[in-house]
Amino acid sequence: MTAPASPSPATPSGEVVMRTIAMPADTNNNGDIFGGWLVSQLDLGGAILARSTALSRVTTVAIDALTFHRPVAVGDIVTCYARLDRVGRTSMKIAVEAWVHRYSAADQQQVTSGHFTYVAIDGEGRPHPVKR
Ligand SMILES: CC(C)(COP(=O)(O)OP(=O)(O)OC[C@H]1O[C@@H](n2cnc3c(N)ncnc32)[C@H](O)[C@@H]1OP(=O)(O)O)[C@@H](O)C(=O)NCCC(=O)NCCS
User: Fold this and answer.
1) How far apart are CA 97 and CA 112, in angstroms?
2) Deepest in the core among 26, 45, 60, 79, taking most CB within 10 A?
3) Number of other CB atoms surrounding residue 20 within 10 Å
């Protein structure tokens, strides 16, 4: 049995920003869910918190410390949690975690985590202050 990349915390950190079910169309050649799909879910989840913080358009400028702790299986309920860690002048650093509920388990398990940085942008795509 393969050990997880790092021990999973007992509880998620942050607020629920997205929930969905992992579907067969999003599998990789191992039959697990494709990592790119998960990154996309985390990015969307973080963007929801960034948008509601900046009350404007936002764009992702960086993704750091992305870790896939465990594989995601078809049928897992995937929940993304986001926590605002830092607000700069135009940027927001947001910690995002994905947790899954399996058919066979009562508790959810953390599968992925990372730090996403978003920039608040105006209608022309130029950075503008988060707090305007
Ligand atoms: C995001 C973007 C608007 C920033 O424009 P820019 O001219 O580089 O703006 P700045 O240099 O003023 O940086 C804006 C903020 O982003 C931060 N930033 C820039 N690059 C960063 C990086 N690699 N990591 C973390 N923060 C970064 C800056 O520190 C600054 O934060 P602050 O205002 O809170 O101090 C521009 O780079 C862009 O459009 N990138 C493409 C975004 C995109 O398409 N995302 C989707 C990916 S598919």
Assistant:
1) 6
2) 45
3) 16
Which residue segments constitute the domains of the chain, with CATH numbers given? Answer: 15-121 (3.10.129.10)
pTM exceeds cut of 0.85: yes
Q: How far apart are the first and last CA of the chain?
A: 52
- Range with lowest mean pLDDT among 25-34, 36-45, 79-88, 102-111: 102-111
User: Among 119, 121, 126, which residue has the most ligand 1 atoms within 8 Å of its CB, making it the best to mutate?
Assistant: 119
pLDDT of 51 over the 70 cut: yes
- pLDDT bucket at 8, cuts 50 / 70 / 90: low
Which of 7-11, 38-42, 49-53 has the least mean pLDDT? 7-11
**CA 71 to each of CA 34, 45, 83: distance values in angstroms, whole numbers, following the listed order:** 9, 19, 23
Strand ranges (DSSP E) for the chain? 15-21, 57-68, 77-87, 91-101, 109-121
> What is the rounded distance in angstroms from the CA atom of residue 96 to the CA atom of residue 84?
9
Supply 90's token pair.
């135009």
Atom of ligand 1 nearest to the CA of 61: 1
